[in-house]
Amino acid sequence: MSSSRQGSGDVSPGSRTALATVEELQARITELDPLIAAVCTPNPDALTDAARLDTERDDGRVRGPLHGVPVLVKDNVDTAGLPTTAGSLALADQPPPPDDAPLVRRLREAGCVVLGKTNLSEWANFRGSSSSSGWSAYGGLTRNPYALNRSAGGSSSGSGAAVAAGFADLAIGTETNGSIVCPAALNGVVGLKPTVGLVPQKGIVPISHSQDTAGPMTRTVSQAAALLTILTGGGTRYEEHCSGDDLTGVRIGVPRGPLWGYSTGLDQVSEEALQLLSQCGATLVDHLNLPSPGGDEDQLNVLSYELKVDLAAYLATRVDGGPRNLADLIAFNKAHADKELQWFGQELFERAEATEGLQSPVYVAARLSALRAGRDGIDNLLRDNQLDALVTPSYSPAWAIDLVNGDHVLGSSSSHAALAGYPLLSVPSGTVAGLPVGISFHGTGRSDATLIRLAHAFETARIKAHGPFPRPEFRQWV
């Protein structure tokens, strides 16, 4: 099976009406989503919205290049009239948010059709340490369309799987540490985690205000760039940085060490990616070292302290009568343990509930340590070697789903950018035994446009060398 939309990079509907496009995608979701459970809440108004946007186009009122283009939104982003659950039954029975998150409002103002909400790892994979990516009590288990018994990654599992499955070319994910780039890599799509602060975080169920950001998950880099332009308010037209595959004069660093060497097949595909970058004219500065991003305890402290404060602030925006804070959620999960706690616990919630506020010396010290580890590691390497960006493998190939024991991730390269609040962009690089893998471009703060330029050049070169990326077959992987 393959999508009728091949994702050439054009995000406009062309001569087709938005209504016809939405009807086609809804039919595809009805046919194939039972296999992967990527879309947890369809938008019942999508056809009406599409027809209205077609009328505007017919009247000569075109809002921009995304006019009439369908988009899916992760189910931790407030979307007026649709449930926003973060995958939890604690929010599933509450009234939908009355207002769109600012990023959703920007999508609508740009003429996008919200097709529905995508499933996620419950509470964005920050409730229990043995969670399985892609599972939530509300949305069930999202599966990888390339291998139905393998993980779709987390926590933006549904967004990555939906784009790969051809349910929409555009989707919104969110990331704290790897939650956009991981499912992007595992599902063979583009995932862009912007610099923290570029996209408004209001109206998004949080973990950490210092690390959280929403971002694009798309078929192509140019689509991600166009979507980022809308999400950030249009001040920068990121799609203008998608201009061919000439990287003459660009210097890209290749940190080795712990970011390589955990998957032989991934390393082989990544070495081929380096050759393509070199053929594009880039100067590769190899065998660099990116220091370890610091102790796990500091990172965990930052997320724990910020979760308690940030989640209470978000819950205060929802209608009275539902959970108001982390203690309420912990109590709800215990009362509904047969459904909420059937696969893993909530020790991360309990750890966060025990924290003492953002004035705590423990939090302040952990935040400074984590920030320095992330920023100094990236910035020092860029400065000392006069680099424009870094490139690494993204994530290990998709691991077998194991709801009993949780995820089995061999390795990744998202932590430095996460701690620093810096951008990270994963783009498909090839396959390992039929499973998609990607490479990631890293940069300093607000270097998003540079990363888009590099990723687009690589994508263009890879397609010239190897043809379009293979499409999923919705089968078990042996």
Automatic annotation (TrEMBL):
<dbReference type="InterPro" id="IPR036928">
    <property type="entry name" value="AS_sf"/>
</dbReference>
<dbReference type="Pfam" id="PF01425">
    <property type="entry name" value="Amidase"/>
</dbReference>
<feature type="domain" description="Amidase">
    <location>
        <begin position="21"/>
        <end position="451"/>
    </location>
</feature>
<dbReference type="InterPro" id="IPR023631">
    <property type="entry name" value="Amidase_dom"/>
</dbReference>
<protein>
    <submittedName>
        <fullName>Amidase</fullName>
    </submittedName>
</protein>
